[in-house]
Amino acid sequence: MTAAQSIEQRADAFRATFQHVTEQVRLAFVGHHELVEQALIAFFCGGHTLIEGAPGLGKTLLVRTIAQSLNLTYSRVQCTPDLLPGDVTGTNILADGPQGARAFSFHKGPIFANVVLADEINRATPRTQSAFLEAMQEHQVTVFGAAYEITAPFAVFATENPIEMEGTYPLPEAQLDRFFFKLLMPSPTTDELAEIISRTTGSISVRPAPQADAAAVAEMIALIREVPVADDVLRFALRLVRATHPDADEAPLRIRQYGRYGASPRAAQSLILGAKAHALLRQRYHVAKDDVRAVAPAALRHRILVNFQAEMEHVSADALVTDVLASAEAH
Amino acid sequence: MSIDSALRAAFRRFERRAIAVAFVRSFSIGLLISLLAAEMAGLAGAPAATAAAAAVAVAAIASAAYAWIAWPGMLALARRIDERARLNDLLVTAIDARAGGMHAVVRRAGLAALAKEPAARVYPFELPRHWRRWLLAAGVMQAVALQVAFRAPASRAQTGPTSLALPAATDSASAGGNRAPQQPRTESSAPDVQLAEAGSRSSGQAQRGPAAGADRPASAGSAAVNADGDRLRLAAADANAQIASGRVPLARRAIVERYFANIQSQRKRPQ
User: Fold this and answer.
1) Which pLDDT score is estimated for B180?
2) Rounded CA gap, A252 and A254, in Å?
3) Which of A226, B47, B116, B159 is the most exposed place for a label (fewest CB within 10 A)?
4) Does A260 contact chain B (CB < 8 Å)?
5) Do A4 and B104 touch (CB under 8 A)?
6) Between A173 and A289, whose confidence is greater?
């Protein structure tokens, strides 16, 4: 078998596994096909995802189903204002040793799972939110000076409720930037709602069957990184990122008018990695500008900080991302 | 043959087509401009055939130079083929030396795509992009050229000599030079009077012919020749009158001179 044939086989296996996982997710989660695909893309790129949606749309169900389909460990952290950092990372507990001597032993917190759901993360205090920071970036937790590694694959799915803003703590920019994608979950259509009711009020319950394991996920993550990117396409992605900065030459008029701060280099990483996964799913072995365009809204919307004028005039970050895409085409 | 050289060989077909198209497009514009310049040269007196040949040669050389300058690099070729064939950046990735990993698969896919794609579809022989503007510019240049060539000079000094360099009269049918038209040598029934009257009718400063001579009987053939000669002298007198009045521009003078020269040569041919 030649190297090219080996790659083609691995890519076929990638697409097959992705398709099977998607089908299992759809058994439990109705609609939002693009959102499901992008959530899985973020996971297979080794990134974390922030999902924003009103209560009751199935955000928790989505994340749990993904973990079950991939046969990975899953834990949920319900964020509340009284949640402490130790409740997330774990803490040392004084316990009796085998010879009766007492010693501190580290008890791992819920962060030590392959798939972690941080539900309503904006309700946790900034101190507790920052407990996720090291884990999300370094894949390890430091408690009392000792570092504890989190087993790969590791992904945090955080949810936000855009309705209840009282008593919440907006995520700081540093933590927002650590999320690979931010996905918006809209309300379901009438048909989708009918399907949801039909599934959830009947007597039949569906449990997704595992389609992969940690080793297969690791292989898929490695394969995505092998997809080549041409310099032309890379520069297109970089132009997009540069155009989000109000002081950049590439910035369109509305970014200069409504933007406060633009995307960091992590945005470029998210664009390229997400585009690579998107290309593989579309039967291609190279990244095209179309792939970058497809993942740009999810990768950029939480990284463009808008100013006060934008908030007053109800100009959303998504609208600015659209302008950025248009300006990048024009150059 | 390595993949890299195979890719270059596959691109060569498109490269040749791109250069041919660039040459033809630039030649069409260059020829238009050159022919306009040749026309202006012809109006100023240059031989038409030489001017036309020079125009074609200049246009061809300029077009070849443009095609050489506009020689597309591999990246430009790849972008163009990707765009026209809707390959979604396949070829720009295939030629990117920095790409690794799945690069071999991408290059193979690029070769397959190049083999299927006709070069004519990527580089069709279409009109230059702004061909209407070029045509309009040519029309404006033509109008300006004609206006300049046929414009009545502001002063007599711009016309040069105040009379035409008409061929010297060798027989009764030839027109006069920078002198008064000569009296026809064949007998004519009061042609001199008619010439003088016609000359006086054409312009106040018309050069008059010699005073009417005695009436002489004329044969039918010689009468026809005499009539032609009279008309010719009348035309020459009229032209000289216009030149003297400052109403004949340079280009028209050249045309008129050639006209009379042609008449002269025709008269010399045995009938």
Assistant:
1) 43
2) 6
3) B116
4) no
5) yes
6) A289
Chain segment A256-315, per-residue pLDDT in tens: 999 999 999 999 999 999 999 999 999 999 999 999 999 999 999 999 999 999 989 999
- How high is the mean pLDDT of chain B? 69
Torsion angle of alpha carbons B251, B253, B259, B262, nearest 10°? -100
Note whether A289 and B89 are within 8 A (CB): yes
pLDDT tens digits along A75-88: 999 999 999 999 99
* pLDDT at position B134: 80
Query: Is pLDDT of A118 > 80?
Result: yes
Residues of chain B by 3-state class (helix, strand, coil), percent to 5: 65, 0, 35
* Strand duo A49-53 + A102-108: pairing: unpaired
Give the closest residue to A110 by CA, choosing from A138, A78, A75, A141. A75
Among B93, B104, B108, beta carbon nearest to A230: B93
Please give, rounded to a whole number of angstroms, the shortest distance from the CA of B57 to a CA of chain A: 39
Inter-chain CB proximity B92 and A3 less than 8 Å? no
Distance from CA of A14 to the nearest CA of B (A): 14
- Report the alpha-carbon distance of residue A177 to residue B49 in Å, rounded: 75
Residue A220 or B231, more confident: A220
pTM tops 0.80: no
**Cis bond upstream, residue A188 (ω within 30):** no
DSSP A85-115: HHHHHEEEEEEE-TTS-EEEEEEE-TTSSSE
Contacts of A248 (CB under 8 A, 6+ apart): A242, A262
Mean pLDDT of chain A: 90
Could you tell me if B6 and B111 are in contact, meaning their C-beta atoms sit under 8 angstroms apart?
yes
Residue with tokens 């009417």: B212
DSSP-assigned beta bridge partners for residue A115: A74, A155
> What is the distance between the terminal CA atoms of chain B, rounded to a whole angstrom?
77
Tens of pLDDT, residue by residue over B153-190, are: 554 444 444 455 555 444 444 444 444 444 444 433 33
Higher-confidence residue of B44 and A44: namely A44
Residues contacting residue A109 through CB under 8 Å, at least 6 positions apart: A86, A87, A88, A89, A90, A91, A141
**Chain A contact set for B101 (CB, 8 A):** 7, 225-228
Among B105, B107, B111, most A C-beta atoms within 10 A, so best to mutate, is B105
For residues A146 and B15, what is the distance between their CA atoms, to the nearest angstrom? 63
**Measured between CB atoms, which of A3, A7, A289 is closest to B89?**
A289
Query: Band of the pLDDT at B204, cuts 50, 70, 90?
Result: very low
Q: Does A329 touch chain B (CB under 8 A)?
A: no
Q: How far does the CA of residue A182 sit from the closest CA of chain B (Å)?
A: 26
**Three-class DSSP category at A104:** strand
The CA-based dihedral angle spanning residues A243, A245, A246, A251, taken in that order and rounded to the nearest 10 degrees: -10
Q: Which residue has the tokens 């309700």?
A: A123
| Lowest-pLDDT range of A166-180, B196-210, B242-256 | B196-210
The answer to whether A185 touches A53, Cβ cutoff 8 Å, is yes
How many angstroms away from the CA of B79 is the closest CA of chain A?
A: 9
Interface residue A227 vs chain B (CB under 8 A): yes
CA distance A117 to A102: 34
